[in-house]
Amino acid sequence: MTAHHPPAFVPRAWDLWDPGRAVRFLEPEGLAAEAPRLPLPCRALSIPLAALPSHAPVSPPGLRGPALRGRRSLILCGTGPELAAAAAHLSPAAARALANYADPARRLRFADGSSWDLDERPRVMGIVNVTPDSFSDGGSFLDAAAAAAHAGRLLEEGADLLDLGAESTRPGAAPVDPREEWARLGPALAAIRRAHPGARLSVDTRRAEVARRALDAGADLVNDVAALGDPGMGEVVAAAGVPVALMHMRGDPATMQLRTGYDDVAGEVAGFLAQRAAAAREAGIADDRILLDPGLGFAKSAEGNVALLAQLRSLLSLGYPLLVGASRKRFIGLLTGVAEPAARVAGSVAAAVAAVLEGAGVVRVHDVAATRQALAVAHALRAPGPPERGASR
Ligand code: HH2
Question: Which residues does a 6 A CB cutoff place in the pocket of ligand 1?
Fold first, then answer.
């Protein structure tokens, strides 16, 4: 499991552990009592194995029986080699989740065969909302020429991909008829394609029909906040061979903020995403074309969003790269006391940095230049060695 480490020592969470310590297994309820006494950075060691069905047998050596039976989570402490050895004693599903966590998925492949290596650096998705009512920039880029000009600015600032959305999914927003959605999106997509033929474009839609039209018009990725909720969506994505972002939400934007209560927000989100990723695979979408997103602000309280960001790393156990969209959202406003969404840039950048340090490979943002600058620093903290001089990717 350490095979991907370059020869120089790379201090990942995996390697920070006390070399002399035996592997420890604690059930999750034990964490609150035990964690403060553990001399290890146990925050990094909490691995909700949410990919597991709740009956999966987990039987690490020395701790068997009722204490662990039926648990979806365990805490492992040990050196890399100790944990690799321990994985041999776990059920195959648990061992896979542990391996995914230790050696996260890092590649996202596009239909033309090109790909992103997210270890090389995190990627930035710039937001282009072609809507009259988005919470932060509604109405600003509604006509195609304004959308194309905005797209050009974001590309200049360093966006790796532009995410075009024509339906606001802010809390309480009413659904938009797919014909109206495409009437907004189509002209903007065409104008952006014309002005920036080489740009990677994504379409932010819940409707298979809108996705199909956008893919025909040259979109490179489908960003589906309903995670294949529209029955035709999986087939459309699979047929085009494009990557898809699957996001967690409960219900729909109109009602989701009535459903923000969770016993274990990260565990529930992970369980949902594991199930949607399985549905995507069943529809014929390849593993390296799937991105998972915890859906900050979608059926979440401010506390839920913060908990998800803090525990984001645990979602890596699912085996897919992570996308996070915190930009200018209400919980940033609540944390900072800044009411105006467009003025939440610094808080949003902090959230993007936190997401990347906790394992996100892609962030969805309004403020591309500020985010790229901050992520260059954040990435240096998590990556081996300084960036190559003159590196331009
Ligand atoms: N957030 C929004 C829209 N789409 N897609 C993904 N994958 N993840 C997100 O967090 C996400 C998303 C909401 O933000 P925005 O587009 O700025 O606002 P609105 O929905 O009001 O258009």
Answer: 127, 129, 131, 134-136, 165, 168-170, 204, 223, 225, 245, 247, 293, 295-296, 323, 325, 364
